[in-house]
Design brief:
The chain is mainly α. It folds into 2 domains: 89 residues, Rna Polymerase Sigma Factor, Chain: A, CATH 1.10.1740.10; 107 residues, Arc Repressor Mutant, subunit A (Orthogonal Bundle). It is built from 11 helices and no strands. The N terminus and C terminus are likely disordered.
């Protein structure tokens, strides 16, 4: 495949498949920090993220001969890493599988914000404060895993919609719906802390509930 042949990882992957461990080490060096960063943002624990990095690359070594390069090496690696990260989540809270329920994620089922209000201070100034960054971290932790994972990959890691879909094994339209859900839920959680209650607006949903 011409596109695969032009991929920057292709030569290293081919060498690693032939048993060149130095080529594999170069792949590790290229991507280990990205894997760690993503795992940490999903799990929120340094030790867990480090374990995910080790598990992911150990799995890559084991399964590299069977890797058919139908997707890029990075996409394949991140799919493995995200799966390991989410397996750890299952032991900490009730699990919602990121690969299930595509039909349930639709714009028609989008939740309506209950708390709508202008923020008390300028958002650009708020973002510079340590306590606000902590608030953002806590709000992200409260999201269901399938929404948090999409938000981390798309908005924080700046992966494309197609890449996120490939990593999670879901459609691009479902990525977009889950991302919007995540953004809405984060916005409402943060607004409950930063919003000016004296200027709160009543949503149509709240007014008729």
């Amino acid at each position: 495949m011409e596109q695969t042949a032009l991929h920057p990882d292709n030569e290293l992957v081919a060498s690693a498949k032939r048993g060149d461990f130095s080529a594999f080490e170069r792949l590790v060096t290229r991507y280990e920090q990205r894997v760690y960063r993503t795992a940490f943002r999903i799990l929120g624990r340094k030790e867990d993220a480090e374990d995910v990095v080790q598990d992911a690359f150990a799995s890559v070594i084991e399964h590299l001969p069977a890797f058919r390069e139908e997707s890029g090496f990075y996409t394949w690696l991140m799919r493995i890493a995200v799966n390991f990260a989410l397996k750890r989540v299952r032991t900490r809270r009730r699990w919602v599988d990121v690969g299930d329920g595509e039909s349930q994620d639709s714009y028609g089922a989008m939740p309506h914000p209950e708390f709508i209000a202008p923020w008390k201070d300028d958002p650009s100034l708020l973002a510079e404060r340590r306590e606000i960054r902590q608030l953002l971290r806590e709000a992200l932790d409260e999201l269901d895993e399938k929404y948090r994972t999409v938000f981390v990959l798309r908005d924080i890691e700046d992966r494309t919609t197609a890449e996120v879909a490939g990593i999670l094994g879901i459609s691009e339209s479902n990525v977009k719906v889950r991302l919007l859900r995540a953004r809405l839920q984060l916005r409402e959680r943060i607004t409950r802390q930063l919003g000016d209650e004296s200027r709160q607006l009543k949503s149509d949903h709240a007014a008729h509930g």
